Amino acid sequence: PADDVGLLELHAPQIARDARSGQFVMALVPGGEQAAVALGIYAVDGERIALLFFVCGKRTAKLAALRPGDRLSCLAPLGNGFDLSGGCRDVAIVAGGVGIASVLLPALELLRGGARVRLYYGARTANRLVEAERFVAAGCDVRVATDDGSAGHRGYVTDLLAADEEPAQMLLACGPTPMLRAVASLATERDVRAQ
Prior knowledge:
The protein is α/β, with parallel strands linked by helices.
């Protein structure tokens, strides 16, 4: 990932066993700070989990500075996660910024089940579109938008979703609140199930 993006891999057998798509971890940053950081569970591989995050302050900088063998206190898995039991064959996933960290697991699960997965991924600039190639390699149809037009559509990622004339059967979304409101509005307008 880019310099200001952290990717932590943790040996966490219980979390790996119990985690569902879309759940998150509360990580207590080393060094005595009492405030925890909420991080989406990005990937699960055997007894390991991966956490993807932007380094944007003291706490995330301390997380990014962790080295192999360091310990991290985590409370997880938390949240309801995504309910993928509906058997949808065509799913659109909308991710804004670091929201990408919570949507790899559901994308992979849906693809393994034979679903078509379209990822609508938005960020401020092209260098903030982290890990997009991983979704392409997995088999997702990836469509990007950047605020500054440095990659893909210039404007909001929800513009791309709204312009798609072939609505998906279900929408999954993770990102900033204004983006989530726009996705909810489109879901209501198109009578599509959304999470």
